[in-house]
Structures are given as structure tokens and as C-alpha cells.
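Hey,

Quick one before I head out. I ran the complex with adenosine-5'-triphosphate overnight. Inputs first:
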Amino acid sequence: MPSFDFSSFKITPFAILDILLLAIIIYQLYNLIRGTIAANIFIGLAIIYVLYFIVPESKMPLLAGILKKVADVGIIAVIVLFQQEIRRFLLLMGKNASLQRNKAWWRYFFGKVETEKNNYARIKPIIDACKSMKQTRTGALIVFAKYYDEQFYQNSCEVLDARISKRVLESIFQKNSPLHDGAVVIAENKIKSASCILPVTEKADLPAQFGLRHRAGIGVTEANDATAIIVSEETGEISYAKQGRIKMDISFAELEKLLNKDF
Ligand SMILES: Nc1ncnc2c1ncn2[C@@H]1O[C@H](COP(=O)(O)OP(=O)(O)OP(=O)(O)O)[C@@H](O)[C@H]1O
């Protein structure tokens, strides 16, 4: 049975750093899987590992043998079962480590006012399109991808590469348009694709009225470094998804603030 020799453990600055880093990693992982089915799988695996450590091999050889077999392939099972979560975790680390994409630094070096002025011009057509779609109760899902992962998006999308404009967005989501089903993906300051079928979230604790559009909006932000605007066809409400979480019924002022930060 594996064992950890606590007598050899000394409190040194490195040991404290070790514990702190492990705590941060566990906290981030917890944040990623909170409220998802993955959390239940994680608890199941944790129970197997705890049993593996406490079941005495000499007295209960059958159970101990089975637990050992499961524990031995544990790391492979973790990689297979938590593929999406590991991907999100690595994305999160890469995102935080990237100096160029850290806007605080970017603005410090290249000027805040200029960036915000340019940003408003980029955001305005999107907000105007949302205002009009809210009024006409036109369902829409607009994804803002930080990196346009061709493999991920192009498989299920219609490639456009169009300039962002209110009228283009409105025409895509208009009920008679052949592209209205699915999501629009905006990246690199362009409408890269439309009619995208995205992965839906597996979260179990979402409001009952959330259908596939909202679930896909949340799902894409779990699997990618992306945010999403969802306009509800039923209520006209605007929601905003980021990192697997959703803000419901937001105002246009709030939407502008969020886009300013994320887009
Ligand atoms: N996997 C998916 N990826 C992208 N879009 C999807 C996906 N599944 C469904 N949709 C879009 O969502 C629409 C169906 O929305 P549904 O009514 O289930 O969602 P909802 O969350 O209840 O939103 P609403 O409030 O607009 O009704 C489909 O017509 C399609 O355009």
C-alpha cells in the first residue's frame, strides 16, 4: 500500500510554496468542475482512492486487489474523463500567463483612452444588433473567441469571414435565414462563421427555462477561451456567458462594459 513518510516532512519555504501551489491548483480545478457532472465523477474517484489507502490488503485481499487495479489506471481514467476540464484548466493557465493579452499591461504600454475609443466603435454594431433582436424577439447566440480554433469551429460551421455590422448580424439570425440556426463566432475582429453547432454544457443546476441555445452558450465558454451573448427568442432577455458561468437579463450598459473588457 502506498504511504507518505510524514516524519521526513519539514516546513521550509519550498514546502510552504509547494502546499500553496497545490492549494491554488485544487481550488482552480474545483472552480472548473463546480456544479457539473464532472464533480460527481471526481468525488467517485476520490472515494476509490481513499478506500484504496484504508482497506487493509492482508485482511481484505479481494477488495484491495480490485481497488489497486482501479487506482493503477487512475491517471489514464482522469485524463479520459476530464478531457474538457483539463483543456479548460490549461487554457486558463495559458491565458493568465500571457503578458500580451493581459489588458492591464497592454493599456499601460499602449494607452487606455485610444483602446477604449477603438473598442466602442467595434462594440457598437454588436450592441445595436442585440437591441434590435431583443425588440423583435429574435433568438441569437454570438460567441467571441479569443483564439479561433479552426478545428473546433469549422467542423460544424458555415465559414463567412465577414466585417462585423449590425445588418449582417440581424440578417444571419432572422428567422427565414438559412444560417439562423446555431451560433455566430466572432474572432480577429470579424464574423468568422455562422450556423455553428456548439457543445452544450452538462451543468445540472441551470434554470429550467434554459434550452439548447443557453446551454450551448455556456458550453462553448467552458471548452474554449470565449465569451457568448445569448438573446432569448422567448423573452428577448440578453444573457452573457463567460468561463462556464452565465449572467442573466443584463442591461445594455452592462453588456457594453462586459464587451469592453472581454472583446
Ligand atoms: N448545440 C447548439 N449550438 C448552437 N446553437 C444551438 C445548439 N442547439 C440549439 N441551438 C440553437 O438554439 C435554438 C433552440 O433554442 P431553444 O429554444 O432550445 O433554446 P433556449 O435556451 O430555450 O432559448 P430561447 O429562450 O431563445 O428559446 C435552435 O434553433 C438553434 O438555433
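Residues 112-135 form the longest helix (24 residues).

Talk tomorrow,
K.
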